[in-house]
């Protein structure tokens, strides 16, 4: 990939991940004691995603986008934004998007198409469309 193509891809990725406004910030400035403002928790999560996606390069794209607890430590709006973004990226890349999320907020739950719910010990208690999960759990006498 040429330098200009790589720069264009990087700019597109920054725009897609809503990091353009902070592209020139140092990641740790907030913690170094600098007078500058560092990246927020949500920005740091999106930056980690950008770094992972930027490493793909070329024509070889992932068949799945995997994210382990991408909403941990994020507020309600940032968590919903991250899940929406991951879903959009998966659809744009035509690949499966698989997330592990513990106790998702209702705003995040409503964005999930299919779910695998695990009981303690890793036993599967439901696998299927999200809109069917509540009725299934109620049938098992869970509220």
TrEMBL record:
Pfam families: ABC_tran. It is found in: Membrane. Signal peptide: none annotated. GO terms for molecular function: ATP binding; ATP hydrolysis activity; ATPase-coupled transmembrane transporter activity. Residues 7-72 form the ABC transporter domain. One of its GO terms (cellular component) is membrane. Keywords: Membrane, Transmembrane, Transmembrane helix, Transport. It is a multi-pass membrane protein. SUPFAM superfamilies: P-loop containing nucleoside triphosphate hydrolases (SSF52540). Coiled coil: none annotated. InterPro entries: ABC_transporter-like_ATP-bd, ABCG_transporters, P-loop_NTPase. This is ABC transporter G family member 4. The lineage of its organism: Eukaryota, Sar, Alveolata, Dinophyceae, Suessiales. The gene is ABCG4.
């Amino acid at each position: 990939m040429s330098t200009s193509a790589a720069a264009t891809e990087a700019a597109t990725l920054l725009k897609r991940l809503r990091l353009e406004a902070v592209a020139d910030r140092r990641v740790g400035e907030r913690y170094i004691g600098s007078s500058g403002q560092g990246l927020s928790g949500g920005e740091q999560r999106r930056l980690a995603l950008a770094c992972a996606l930027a490493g793909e390069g070329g024509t070889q794209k992932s068949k799945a986008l995997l994210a382990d607890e991408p909403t941990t430590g994020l507020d309600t709006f940032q968590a919903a934004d991250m899940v929406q973004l991951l879903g959009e990226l998966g659809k744009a890349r035509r690949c499966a998007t698989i997330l592990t999320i513990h106790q998702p907020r209702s705003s995040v739950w409503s964005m999930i198409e299919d779910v695998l719910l695990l009981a303690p010990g890793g036993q599967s208690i439901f696998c299927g469309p999200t809109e069917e999960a509540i009725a299934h759990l109620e049938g098992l006498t869970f509220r």
